[in-house]
Structures are given as C-alpha cells and as structure tokens.
Amino acid sequence: GAGVSQSPSNKVTEKGKDVELRCDPISGHTALYWYRQRLGQGLEFLIYFQGNSAPDKSGLPSDRFSAERTGESVSTLTIQRTQQEDSAVYLCASSSYSGRAFFGQGTRLTVV
Amino acid sequence: AQSVTQLGSHVSVSEGALVLLRCNYSSSVPPYLFWYVQYPNQGLQLLLKYTTGATLVKGINGFEAEFKKSETSFHLTKPSAHMSDAAEYFCAVSSAGTYKYIFGTGTRLKVLA
User: Fold this and answer.
1) Listed residue (A1, A96, B28, B38) closest to B47, CA to CA
2) CA nearest A79: which of A11, A9, A30?
C-alpha cells in the first residue's frame, strides 16, 4: 500500500482480555517498529524487527506483551491480560535502508 | 547505547517569534538525527533529518536544525512562528546499519496570537 496501515484504529477492551494490534508496513521496508504513546507522554520504544534478524525486544514492558512479524510483511502486537495502564496509542512504523521511518496512524487502545 | 533528551515538554511562542526546540543526544557511534512533527489528530511526519554531510539541515515548513557534535545537540529552529506550527515535535536518534530509532519525550509547541 501507499503507507503504513494499522488496524483497528480504535479498540476498547475489558481489563483482563487479550488484544491483537495489526500493522501492515510499506512494501519493501525491511525494518518495522512498534512504539507506545501514553496520554501526555512521549514515544516509548517497544520492539524492532529488521529483516530476518532476531527482533530487539528490549522495550517490551512486561511478558504480557509480544509481537510477531512474518518475513518483511505484517506484524502483530499482542497484549495479554490487559491492564488499565496499557491504555495508549500504539504506533507502528517501517523504514527502508534510507533510514526515514513512516508511521501509521496508530491504534488507540482503551482498557476499561 | 543511544538516548535523546528534549528540554521543555511545553514551549509557547508568539506568532512571528523565533521557534527554538532543544534536543540533545547521546550516542557511542556517529548518529543519524531526526525531527518528527505530530499535528493534532494526525500521524507522525518527518520534518528533517541529518545523516552525513552538511550540518545545517533544512526541512519542510521553514524549519531547520543544526548538528553540533561538540555540544551533542540537534536543536530545531524556525525564524518566524506561524499558528499552523502548533503541534508536538519529537527528536529521534538512530545510526547507520541499525534503523532503530530512539525518540525523545516530545515538546508541545503552542503559538500565541
């Protein structure tokens, strides 16, 4: 597609439920990133995929968070047993070798 | 390890005044530096980037930034603020071969009439 696509755009879930957030990167982009932006705060790095290398998971806040990416295509961020503190906008970005990252519009997650 | 510090989570300027948003970085390798802007209800957009070469980088909408290695800074400036510049601005650092971005916490710019 023309840009990075994220779905759903909004998600309201009950505390304790699992959620899956999807990211479709720009075709041909080898790198894919997930960030979290809590209300009034900056971007928090979560995880980074680069080609077939092992992902950099150093930003995942707990073992309830996981992400997968198949090859250089779609990525899924999964949050298990959601907590209210997980409420945030989850941003996905992809980039090519040029280094410029293109961001999706984000998924706004609300845990009630 | 790399890190980014943005001084001032909120900055207010009068319309027509100079805009200065501060960014300092830490990097053990030559950095790639970026400024991104997030307008209300929109996604992040690249304003400008420095990778190699000229240290003064010009971006969109009249913004520019200067890479100063001795000061480990990459401050964003615009000579004359416009109401449409009101947004949140993020500084980010990366490096060649990693593609991993580390973002600052952001600076929300308010432009006063």
Assistant:
1) B38
2) A11
Residue B76 CB-density burial (10 A; 0-12 exposed, 13-18 middle, 19+ buried): buried
Tokens of B58: 């010009």
pLDDT digits (tens, 9 = 90+) for B50-85: 988 889 999 999 999 999 999 999 999 999 999 999
Contact state of B104 with A105 under an 8 Å Cβ cutoff: no
Rounded Cα gap, residues B9 and B102, in angstroms? 17
Question: Which residue from A minimizes the CA distance to B6?
Answer: A42
The one-letter amino acid code at B55 reads T
Q: Is A70 on the interface with B (CB under 8 A)?
A: no
pLDDT tens for each residue of chain A, 112 residues long:
579 999 999 999 999 999 999 999 999 888 899 999 888 777 888 999 988 888 989 889 999 999 999 888 899 999 999 999 999 999 999 988 656 788 899 999 999 9
In 3-state terms, chain B is what percent helix, strand and coil (to 5)? Answer: 10, 55, 35
